[in-house]
Amino acid sequence: MSSLDVMYQELILDHARHPHGRGLAESFDGESFQVNPTCGDRIQLRVGLRAAPAPGGEPGAQPGDGGEPGALVLESVSWDGQGCSISQASASMMKDLVEGKDLAAVEAVAGAFAELMRSRGRGVDQAAAESLEDAIALEGVSRYPMRVKCALLGWMALKDAAAKAAAGDASPARIPEGI
Amino acid sequence: MTVSSALSDQEVAAIRADFPILGRRLEGGRPLVYLDTGATSQRPRVVIDAMRDFSENHNAAVHRGAHTLAGEATDAFEDARAAIAAFVGAAPAELVFTSGATGAINLLTAALGAASAGRGQDPSHRFAILPGDRIVVTQAEHHSNLVPWQELAARTGAELAWLRAGPDGRLRLDDLATAINARTRLVAFTHASNVTGAITDVAVMVAAARRAGALTVLDAAQSAPHLPLDLSALGVDFAAFSAHKMLGPNGIGGLYGRIELLEALPPGLTGGSMVEIVTMREATFLPPPHRFEAGTQAVTQAVGWAAAVGYLDALGMERVAAHEHALTARLLEGVARIDGVRVLGPADATDRLGAVALDLAGVHPHDVGQYLDAQGIAVRVGHHCAQPVHRALGVVASTRASLGLYNTAAEVDQFLGALDQVRSYFGVGR
Ligand SMILES: Cc1ncc(COP(=O)(O)O)c(C=O)c1O
After folding, report:
1. CA nearest neighbour of A33 among A158, A157, A152
2. E strand map for B154-214
3. Where are the beta strands (DSSP E) in B92-237?
4. pLDDT digits (tens, 9 = 90+) for B140-188
């Protein structure tokens, strides 16, 4: 496979064509709006949080999945935006990956993804790779430094929206007029 | 322009041999197809050699010191100024070296801001921009010729008005009557858009500005490399351009100003090399152009830029323009045959440069550019530092092929062939 075909795997193009989480939820606990300054691509992203149930709560919960008792769990991620197939696929995969995780676990996968993007095609260790699920398919992007920003756009919005939500700031994101 | 005056195939082959980078092979041994001259042009060996010769034999601080090298460096710098000024139809004192077109426009807005704040005594008062005055720009501007005017308007309390771009990207000259009012002090506009390629009717713009007593500022960053340019004949008051778009190095450009205006304008940047007498309280300033050249200048780049205009002059800008015009027509005819292509700009090559931005239905420009890059074809993707004109044409970003004198019909055809494959690669339009 050429580097181009590695970057544009079918899984990525599928996510780009049928993105998950696209369409903004009405209510949210935190919202962010981010642009990629080089191309003007943009994403508006909303998150909803809930507190993880007290001990002895939901049966069969996995660690990190559903959250430590009392931890804040990312209940919903929804977004809308305009962008290339990489940014759209990345936001779509991100939604699948982070929804239902507590914020500490979200931060951990965000870190793994950022490391993958910085890897310049060298990849990441197996544990990090496994934690990324579908998003590991974006490894090919790391060979193209000019495209890494595309893949990170949704993640930047997630980080910002989650931080706002955790701080109790549910104000709408500022979206420049006439954009 | 007649076709017979265009460069012959042999001449283009000889030109290509002058540009070392065009011999570069990319991954898999693919030759480079460079279609991004609108962003920055490549450099012929004479430019590279002139800068090396200056560095190896003549480098010294200019306009100070009395030693041999200082004299040679000063001569090289001022000879470069004269050559570049002649190339754009200006007198040497009318050409101020800047860091580029962006630097030139910011230098001008800084000077106008200083005049508006009352600096520069009587002669400068004519430049003062007051609250309620108007600055007119256009929707087709590069951010370089828009954002500095937004800032100057904000600093002075002036209002900003603009001409719109029509559906074919050309400026709507019917907006002139409403945009330029009696309080308009200045009209800043591009000679040719780096997105749509549309060439502005400068005479109409200048006439409208003059009727209102407004100054004109021409962004010649895209026209200087591709058209014969005679700024004094065009009758604009100021103009800006960059060496790196016209076969020269980056880091240098020019601000043109009619001499009687530069003589009256206060400096925008201040410091060393632009002063006469400095006391602890105040300073007096040199005449133009040096009044506007504070600090150590990009002398090596000036020497390289002069070599670049010498190279263009030897070919003749009429012939360069004719060659590019023919390629532009071929490119526009070709993209019109490809499904899903919408050209952002005039659809035919009349009054148009070879910057061809397009939208390919269903495929994002980044993805288009990546596919082309894998074939060795370098194009620009994104908003090309011109968000408003993209917005006016209903898109966020585009894919732009832009031609230079070293491009060939075969390269245009290769681009067209690759572009035709993009939608099927991404599985759209099947
Ligand atoms: C029309 C136009 N104006 C201004 C500029 C700015 O030139 P520079 O970045 O060299 O200052 C450019 C180039 O990017 C341009 O195409």
Report:
1. A157
2. 159-163, 184-190
3. 95-98, 134-138, 159-163, 184-190, 215-219
4. 999 999 999 999 999 999 999 999 999 999 999 999 999 999 999 999 9
Mutation target to probe the A interface, by most A beta carbons within 10 A, among B370, B379, B389 is B370
Q: Is B41 in the pocket of ligand 1 (CB under 6 A)?
A: no
Question: Using a 6 Å cutoff on CB, does residue B190 contact ligand 1?
Answer: yes
Q: Which domains does chain B have, with CATH numbers?
A: 3-43+316-425 (3.90.1150.10), 48-313 (3.40.640.10)
Taking an 8 Å cut-off on Cβ atoms, the answer to whether A84 and B364 are in contact is yes
pLDDT computed for residue B430 by the predictor: 57
Q: B253-257 and B238-242: which strand pairing? A: antiparallel
- C-alpha of residue B367 to centroid of ligand 1, in Å: 24
Ligand 1, residue B38: give the atom nearest the CA.
16
Please tell me the distance from the alpha carbon of residue B259 to that of residue B255, in angstroms, as a whole number. 12
Split at pLDDT 50, 70, 90, the class of B1 is very low
DSSP string, A56-84: T-STTPBTTBS-STT-EEEEEEEEEEE--
| Domain spans in chain A, listed from the N-terminal domain onward | 3-57+64-166
Lowest mean per-residue pLDDT among B111-115, B117-121, B343-347 = B117-121
The pLDDT tens digits of the residues spanning A146-179 come to 899 999 999 999 999 999 999 999 999 999 877 7
Residue B232 Cα to ligand 1 middle (Å): 21
Q: Which single residue is written with the structure tokens 């780096």?
A: B194
pLDDT tens digits, residue range A131-149?
999 999 999 999 998 899 9
* Residue pointed to by tokens 């239902």: A100
In a 13 Å sphere around the CA of B284, the CA atoms on its Cβ side amount to 3
Alpha carbon of A163 to ligand 1 centroid (Å) = 38
Q: Do A82 and B396 touch (CB under 8 A)?
A: yes
Q: What percent of chain B has pLDDT over 70?
A: 99
User: Lowest mean pLDDT: which of A16-20, A34-38, A92-96, B222-226?
Assistant: A34-38
Query: Which ligand 1 atom is the nearest neighbour of the CA of B384?
Result: 14
- From 3.20.20.140, 3.30.1490.20, 3.90.1010.10, 3.10.350.10, which CATH number describes the A3-57+64-166 domain? 3.90.1010.10
In the predicted structure, residue B108 carries a pLDDT above the cut 50: yes
Q: Is the CB of B144 under 6 A from ligand 1?
A: yes
Task: Tell if the pTM clears 0.90, that is, is over it.
Answer: yes
Q: Nearest residue CA, atom 16 of ligand 1?
A: B194
